[in-house]
Every structure is written in structure tokens, then in C-alpha cells.
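Whiteboard transcription, Tuesday session. T.W. wrote the C-alpha cells on the left side:
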């Protein structure tokens, strides 16, 4: 039983962040399971299911924080149905396609909700690169609103540059600033607008490192913080007391070995995400409408029940 080479390539692309951002990771994972199903030469339904589980385990192990990844795997594996390999294959095709269509639709629906919060002439401050957050801006621009953006570069990997490029393509004037300049410019900002990798049952938002500091500063300045996150970002295991793993990435992203050596070889740590408590967030904007963070648990229960399974593990 083999995990298909293309699935391995998808896993490697997620691991190295060639494919990155919670929504894009989920989309890639669902497509990878479909690839595995298409390539399968399993002789029995049991073998087919085992192959799918092995592919899902490989994908699951790539990055720990964005819950969109296990939520995507769960969606496709729960859709497995049929008595024969052919029927099982057809069910994966159907479910993976359905997942990707829903993902796109959710993003454009939440974009419209988020756009309603933005007024003509507003300035938004962004952190990292979030397709959900940019969907709100795009939708507001489509409504004819003129927006401006102050874009944090987002060290260590500078995903703010991707945001700057995409905003520019939408015709939104961009001012790029270093992360530590954020507070300095908050008085000129009408909304802090960020995405999320996971949202916990208490309404805490897990997003790119630096989000929580930005949110605390925004609260101090009276600037509203809007989190754009489709419901795929809700972390159902937090309903039953689990916490969200914060990914620690390679220290070379922060400083290369030679420079590190030159400055006395200090200990270096590189957490990729942080946790913003709900009291610093004004609204979580989803495809189901906007929610105060404290009430997100109700939506989470409605969508995910009381907890989650791990269908990629061996039965
Ligand atoms: C990306 C990041 C994004 C969320 C949401 O981190 O923190 O804000 O994933 O993105 P990384 P989206 O670059 O480490 O993956 O809205 O596109 O799902």
C-alpha cells in the first residue's frame, strides 16, 4: 500500500510553506486525497480505505496549528461510502469536489459580510496574508468603496508582501510597515483586519505570531479588530478541553547559522502563531454572519457536535 507521489509532494509543499495559509492548505489536502483515490490500485475496499487513511496521516502531520487541515481530511474521509472500490472512489471524488466548492463559496460569502463593516474611505491594517481577510476587502472594493491599507510585513517570512501585492492588484493603495511600527500607525487606522488558523471554543483566535500584540494595541487605541474566518477554522476539539498546538518553525527563518554564531550563538525560538484572547476581538466574520467571539461556541456546537473523530487513524 503506497501513498501516491503527488500526495507526498502536496505534503512537502505544505511542510515547506510553498502551499500556505489555512484555506489553501485545506484545499490542497482535499485535492490530495482525491489524487490518492484516483491513483489507487487497491484490490479491496479495506485496502482502499487504508490507503486513504495513510495519505491523510501524512498530510495531517505537516503543520499542527491550522485546524482547516484536519477539518478538510475529516470532511473527505467521513464522506467515504460504498461497498466496492469503484463506489468508494466515486464518493471521494464527490466529497472532495464538494469540499473545494464550499470552501470557495464560504470565502466569498464571508467577504460580503466583512465588506458591510467597511465604509468608504476606511483604512485597514493587516497582518500576515489571509485570503479570508482579503475577501472582505475585495468585496468592499466591488461595492465601490475606496479603501487604503497599512500592511505589516510580518516577520520572519514576510507574508505581508503577498498581501501588499494582492491589495495593489485590487487597486487598494498600500503602505508597508515593519511589524514594530504597527502601534505608531494605529491612530490612522479604522479596522485591524486579520485571518485565523484556528478559533477555539472560548472565542480565542489563533493566527500568525504578532496578531495578539496587534490586537492588544488596537484595543488600547480603540481600533476595532475584525477576524475573517470561515467556519472551517473552528477548532472542534477545543469543545472538549483540547488546546491548539502552536507550531515552532526552523530557527533559520529568524537568523542564519553564520550570523547567529557571530552574535554569540544565542538560543533562538520561532513560534509561528499566537493566541489572541476573545476580549481583544470585536467580531469574527464567517460565511454564516458575524459573531462576537464569546458566542462562537454556539456555532461550533451546531456545526461539529460535541467533539471530533480522527478518521485517519487505524481502526
Ligand atoms: C498564515 C496565517 C493566516 C491564516 C488565515 O500563516 O496566519 O492569517 O492562515 O489564512 P502561514 P486564510 O503563512 O504560516 O500559513 O484566510 O488564507 O485561510
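and on the right, the sequence the group agreed on:
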Amino acid at each position: 500500500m503506497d501513498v501516491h507521489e503527488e500526495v507526498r509532494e502536496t505534503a512537502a509543499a505544505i511542510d515547506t510553506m510553498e502551499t500556505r495559509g489555512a484555506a489553501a492548505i485545506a484545499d490542497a489536502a482535499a485535492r490530495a486525497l482525491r489524487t490518492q483515490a484516483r491513483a489507487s490500485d487497491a484490490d479491496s475496499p479495506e485496502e482502499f480505505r487504508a490507503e486513504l487513511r495513510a495519505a491523510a496521516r501524512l498530510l495531517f502531520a505537516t503543520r499542527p496549528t491550522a485546524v482547516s487541515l484536519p477539518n478538510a481530511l475529516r470532511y473527505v474521509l467521513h464522506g467515504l461510502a460504498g461497498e466496492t472500490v469503484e463506489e468508494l472512489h466515486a464518493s471521494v471524488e464527490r466529497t472532495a469536489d464538494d469540499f473545494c466548492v464550499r470552501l470557495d463559496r464560504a470565502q466569498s460569502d464571508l467577504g460580503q459580510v466583512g465588506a458591510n463593516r467597511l465604509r468608504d474611505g476606511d483604512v485597514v491594517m493587516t497582518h500576515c496574508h489571509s485570503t479570508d481577510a482579503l475577501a472582505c476587502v475585495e468585496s468592499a472594493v466591488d461595492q465601490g468603496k475606496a479603501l487604503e491599507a497599512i500592511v505589516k510585513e510580518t516577520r520572519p517570512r514576510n507574508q505581508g508582501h503577498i498581501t501588499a501585492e494582492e491589495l495593489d492588484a485590487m487597486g487598494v493603495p498600500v503602505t508597508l510597515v515593519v511589524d514594530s511600527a504597527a502601534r505608531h500607525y494605529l491612530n490612522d487606522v479604522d479596522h485591524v483586519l486579520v485571518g485565523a488558523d484556528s478559533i477555539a471554543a472560548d472565542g480565542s483566535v489563533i493566527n500568525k505570531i504578532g496578531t495578539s500584540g496587534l490586537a492588544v494595541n488596537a484595543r488600547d487605541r480603540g481600533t476595532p479588530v475584525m477576524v475573517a474566518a470561515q467556519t472551517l477554522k473552528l477548532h472542534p476539539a477545543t469543545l472538549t478541553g483540547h488546546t491548539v498546538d502552536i507550531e515552532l518553525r526552523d530557527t533559520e527563518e529568524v537568523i542564519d547559522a553564520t550570523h547567529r554564531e557571530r552574535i554569540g550563538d544565542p538560543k533562538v525560538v520561532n513560534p509561528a502563531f499566537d493566541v489572541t484572547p476573545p476580549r481583544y476581538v470585536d467580531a469574527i466574520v464567517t460565511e454564516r454572519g458575524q459573531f462576537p467571539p464569546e458566542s462562537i461556541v454556539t456555532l461550533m456546537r451546531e456545526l461539529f457536535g460535541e467533539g471530533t473523530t480522527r478518521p485517519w487513524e487505524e481502526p
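Someone added at the bottom: The pocket of ribulose-1,5-diphosphate is lined by residues 20-24, 66, 128, 130-133, 159, 195-197, 207-208, 272 (CB under 6 Å).
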